[in-house]
Structures are given as structure tokens and as C-alpha cells.
Amino acid sequence: MTDSNFSKYLRLAWEDYEKSGGLIDWEKHDVLCSYVLGDFLLCSKHWSEAEFVYIPVHVEILDHWILLVVDISLRSIVIYDSLKGRPSHDELVDKKCSMVAKYLPHLLQAVGGFDGKLDIQKGIQPLSFRLYESNPQQSNGLVNDVKLTFLKFSNKLYLEHVSRPSSAQVKDRLTHGQSEGSWSRSRITSPMFKVKDNLTFGHVSLDHGRDCDMFIIKYTEFLMSDKSVSKVTTERMEYFCHKLVCELYNHGLRKYEEYVETNRDE
Question: Cα separations (Å) of 257 from 55, 139, 158, 182?
């Protein structure tokens, strides 16, 4: 799975691709190559070794998140959209997915993303894509005050008590004779973090005005666990959100205690 920044980098690369008349500057967009090679996220691997790649994609005009499940062997993309059905909405989603379907083959071809796949048609021909029809839909996208309050509190707790120092902070403090074990959690809190109504965990925004972000997180989790997405419903969003906050808090605590990194993006 990629993080949500991947789709942003992909959009910027596509804009350059169109402006240049089909030329690609891989040095300028080397971060995309790092994703496919499995070098950007520490928990990732080369896409040629993966059966599916899960990509959260932001449709900017709609301010809406969808999930794309890429099957490299079949050269296909399945779209999971929690708000499908309106012609104007579906048209914009289709346009966004068309961009991904056209650009990904160039990226995969350039860094060996097709390698190791048997009976696969290599090349830069666009991938096929289709909308998954049976996934549950969000009803109104409104998140209640209990959920928002819990998210704010948990976000504040996470940032103030779990945030780990950067490599630069570690080097600076060790240079001044401080051991890592002597740092209190309050001393490693970064002043740049603020609690906002629009909260971000793992680069996916949890907006109090809609649930599409939580839908794609849970679609991904269920699909990766080989479970049906039929239980990813609006009625369960509050539970899912509370569960995710607890999981992220405990994950952050473990990162702090074991002093580990999960990506290479400082």
C-alpha cells in the first residue's frame, strides 16, 4: 500500500507529462520510482513482488478520497468509491482514474514493476479500470460531535506524548551530552503540530465533515485481510474511527519506546 502522498506526486508528474508532450523526467520525479522499488516506505517492498497495490487517491475537485486496487499481473485497477452514483461525481472519478491508468505503466516499465510477473503484457499501454459495484456507500458523510471530540483529544495526546524526535534532533542532543533515555516526552514535542478540526493520521485526513477517508482506510484493511467490505458501513464509522485512533496511539507509543522509523520521509 502507498501513503496518500503518492497520488499527489503522481498528479504532479502527470501534469509535467502533458505539458512536455509525453516526455518524462525521472530524476525530477524519482520519488515515484522509490515507491515502486519499495525504498520510500520502510514497511514496503518492490511492487513486482506484490499481488495487489492499494493506492488512496484524492479527487481534488470533489475533495473526496477513493481507493484504487491495482493488479499488476492483470494490468487492471478496481475502484472503491463510497459516494458513487451521481453522473457528475462519477465523471470526475473516471477522469482521475484514467490519469492513473495511463501513467502507471510508464512508471512500472521504467523501474521493473512488471518483472517476475508470468504471462504479463509489458509496455506502456494504459491499464484497464472499473468501478466496484457492491461496496457499501456512506449515507450523509456527517461525523457526530462525540467522534470529533474523541479525535481531537487523541490527536493531542498522540502529538504531545508520543511524537519521536527527528534524526537531526537526536544528533543535536547527543552532541550536547544527552542520552536518549534522559529525554522526557514533553521535551520532544514539536511546536509545529497543532490540533485542528481537520485531523491527519498517516497522511490521510480525518475530516469531521465527511467519512470517505475512513471508508478507504477500512476498505483497504478488509481487502488486505481477505474479508468482505460489506461490513464497512456508515453505521460502523464511529466505532472504526475510535478503533483507529487507539491503534495509531499504540503504534506511536511503540515507535517512541523502541525508537524506530516507518518511512524515510523526515
Answer: 30, 40, 13, 12
Q: Please give the mean pLDDT across all residues of the chain.
A: 78
Q: What is the pLDDT of residues 64-114, one digit of tens each?
A: 999 999 999 999 999 999 999 889 999 999 999 999 999 999 999 998 888
Element (H, E) at 129: strand 128-131
Nearest Cα neighbor of 254 from 154, 173, 164, 188 is 164
List alpha helices for the chain, DSSP H. 5-19, 30-37, 87-111, 145-161, 167-175, 212-224, 237-258
pTM of the entire predicted model? 0.74
Find the distance separating the first CA and the last CA of the chain, reported in whole Å: 19
Phi and psi at residue 79, in whole multiples of 5°?
A: -100, 125
Distance from C-alpha of 124 to C-alpha of 109, rounded to nearest angstrom: 7
CA atoms of 159 and 262, how far apart (whole Å):
16
The Cα-based distances of 188 to 36, 67, 180 in angstroms read 33, 34, 10
- Dihedral angle, C-alpha 145, 236, 204, 209, nearest 10 °: -40
- Residue ranges covered by each domain of the chain: 4-131, 137-155+209-265
* Segment 215-219 long-range contacts (CB within 8 Å, at least 24 positions apart): 215/65, 215/80, 215/82, 215/138, 216/56, 216/65, 216/66, 216/67, 216/80, 216/82, 217/56, 217/244, 219/67, 219/80, 219/82, 219/135
Q: How does pLDDT run across 124-165, given as a tens digit for each residue? A: 999 999 999 999 998 854 444 444 545 555 555 555 554 445
The residue length of the chain stands at: 266
CA–CA dist 161, 5 (Å, integer): 25
Whether CATH 3.30.310 fits 4-131: yes
